[in-house]
């Protein structure tokens, strides 16, 4: 049925709501389950680093802080994905993990193309109204930008 299923995860319990659905679909055939997490640096560090008024010492400290933050996020993300992969592999599934840095929707779409993904299974935060307008929706952007079918698991 599906050779490759992608589950984008942000580390939240909510994003993990997609895992049981993806697991069920993957067990139905010889499917590889791909787990992807995209991390990003905090806006404050990017803003401080790009500030034209900061001294060289402040900029160096900001760059060092950004590097430490990136390293910590990378280590935490790799451990998180490895833990999920082990649990899923114990059920007999083939699982691959990937960690990327940047805009989540862009990396999800790119990953689907690079790895011949047949289906994306992802949860949605269920934002509506102003919150959705201002925060946007990674799920919406993935649906609109990609050519891969997306199965959306609701927040509730």
**Looking at the structure, what is the overall shape?**
elongated
What is the CATH homologous superfamily assignment? HUPs
Give the fraction of residues assigned to helices. 40-55%
Number of helical stretches of at least 4 residues:
6
CATH class: Alpha Beta
Number of domains: 1
> Which fold name corresponds to the CATH topology?
Rossmann fold
Query: Which class do the helix and strand fractions yield?
Result: alpha/beta
Strand content: 15-25%
Distance between the termini: 27 Å
Helices and strands, in N-to-C order? EHEHHEHEHHE
The major beta sheet can be summarized as: 5 strands, parallel
Number of DSSP E strands: 5
Q: Uncertain spans, ≥5 residues at pLDDT below 50? A: none
Question: Nearest-angstrom radius of gyration?
Answer: 18 Å
CATH architectural category: 3-Layer(aba) Sandwich
Averaging pLDDT over every residue, what do you get?
Answer: 85
Strand order of the largest sheet: 3-2-1-4-5
Give the SSE map.
Blueprint: E1 4-9, H1 18-27, E2 32-39, H2 43-49, H3 56-89, E3 94-101, H4 104-114, E4 119-123, H5 129-135, H6 138-145, E5 150-153
């Amino acid at each position: 049925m599906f050779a490759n299923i992608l589950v984008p995860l942000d580390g939240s319990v909510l994003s993990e709501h997609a895992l049981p659905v993806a697991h069920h679909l993957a067990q139905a055939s010889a499917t590889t389950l791909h787990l992807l997490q995209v991390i990003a640096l905090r806006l404050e560090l990017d803003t401080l680093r790009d500030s034209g008024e900061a001294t060289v010492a402040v900029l160096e400290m900001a760059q060092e802080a950004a590097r430490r933050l990136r390293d910590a996020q990378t280590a935490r993300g790799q451990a998180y994905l490895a833990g999920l992969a082990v649990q899923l592999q114990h059920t007999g599934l083939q699982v691959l993990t990937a960690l990327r840095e940047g805009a989540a929707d862009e990396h999800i779409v790119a990953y689907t193309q690079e790895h011949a993904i047949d289906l994306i299974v992802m949860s949605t935060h269920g934002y509506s109204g102003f919150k959705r307008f201002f925060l946007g929706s990674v799920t919406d952007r993935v649906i609109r930008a990609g050519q891969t079918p997306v199965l959306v698991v609701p927040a509730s």
